Amino acid sequence: MQRHEPLAGAEFAPETTYLNSASSGLLPRRSAAALRAALDESTSYGTMGRDYFAAATASRAAFARLLGLPAERVAIGSSVAVRSALIAASLPPGSEVLAPEGDFSSLLNPFGTHPGITLRTVPLEALADAVRPGTALVAFSAVQSLDGRIADLAAVREAARAHGARTFVDATQAAGWLPLRAADFDYLVAGAYKWLLCPRGATFLAFGGEGTGGPDWPAPLHAGWAAGEDPGMSNYGLITPATTARRFDEPPVFLSYVGAEPSLALIGELGVAAIHDHNTGLAAYYREGLAARGLTPRPAPGSAIVSTPGIADAAGRLAEAGVQVSVRGGLLRAAFHLYNSTADVDRLLALLG
Fold it and tell me: Is the pTM of this model over 0.90?
């Protein structure tokens, strides 16, 4: 078996055995340093810093590179739920939205509570086959938060195209370790505080598909001054929205994007393909260890998240020993990322007994 050492080990020195990136990622040292400098600066220059937009602009460009899009097709924001609500509001009354059962609530709830939208849910494995004439949008996570199952992205995309439906992908549990092309989908959203290692409050909305913007995009329903073509001239009165996806920007959560810029740079330096191989290699080793103990983890191999029934009661004991995992839906969920090693997996398995 190939042994795995942490990638970019100099950037991380956790005091715990941290196997909980599916809940929240660790902050690299470079990002922590940038945040400390920005905090110091704010005591003399205010909480918007000396250059309010610089970190957000760099973060937008870095995220776009990771997803294979020009920066002009990426908007910045603060939460997945707000972006889901924007897409929900763009649909005509009476629209049907198809989604997986039990997907993350920040994705589903804005559609389920929006007047005039019918939300239909099916098992994840049946998603592609469930697209039908009249389906306006298929909304789904690339990777399920609960247990790490990976959607059949190609099958769902092709089924949606065959029926004239658009696609809205939540990549929060995927971006940063699973290779993705945002251009394959109409909309892609990602909360960046998990696998992209950013502070909470950095969120991206990418516009893929074949549209060129303008009439192909939703109306900028929450456009404020930061979404103006010239933000410096958009403080008062009605604004002229930007011609790019910046028209969907929320005002940047300044410190979140100060930390996001170096975190996204680190992901770009390492490369998503290398991170994918590292993470899934550790997950596969963990699955083998669980199987040797008579346990049946899920999902099938290929995910960086491994969730296991029957051992959720071990979470407290693991935490006392300094091993951070999580419990979701009665499953013990372990998530393997670039700062983890084979030694981390060995320690987890030893504690499980």
Answer: yes
